[in-house]
Each structure stands twice: as C-alpha cells, then as structure tokens.
Amino acid sequence: MACPDISMLRFSEQSEKAIGRIKQIQGAANVLSGVLASSVLLEIFAGNRVLGSANNIRKKDWEIWAKAMRAVPNVVSREINFIAQEQLMKPLAMDERNFWRAVADGCR
Fold this sequence. Notes:
The protein is mainly alpha-helical. The protein has one domain (about 15-105). The chain has helices spanning about 15-45, 50-60, 60-90, 95-105.
C-alpha cells in the first residue's frame, strides 16, 4: 500500500489524540520488548556461577520466550489498526479519511 503524502495534511483534534495513543502504544511496546529481552538475561545470570548459569540456559523455555518476543509487534499492529478503524467511523475531511484508511490498510 502506498502511503499518502501528509506534508500538507492538517489533523483534527480527534486525529491528533488518536496519533498520540498510537505513539503511547509504540512506546509501551518498546519498553515491553526491552523488559522481555533483559528479564531472560537476569533470570539466567543473576547471582549464579558458571555452572548455575549453564543449567538455567538449558532449562529456559526458549520457544515460549521467542513467541512472546514475536507477539509484541503483532499486538501493536492490531491496536494501531483498531485505532485507525475507529477513526474511520468518525466524520472526517477527505484527506484525513484517506490517511486513516491508508493506516488501516497497512501504511505505517
């Protein structure tokens, strides 16, 4: 999907609030990814010697951890799509409607 040119687009207050919500979701997702990544390192290495760390690495369920890491972008995409669909239900100017339709269709 080609993204529309938004250089001259003036967003309404409701669209600005929606964009703010999207930024909050993206920020929270970045924090969550960082916590997931660092928590596994802390779990493995915190307070352990080499043998304890090796045992923790072996016992760690890497498949579940990888699924959790991969799920974060999917959740963010679904939330952004939900916000875009919500905006499309509101009365908007045509250029603003085109913007939200593009977001809903996958333009990021």
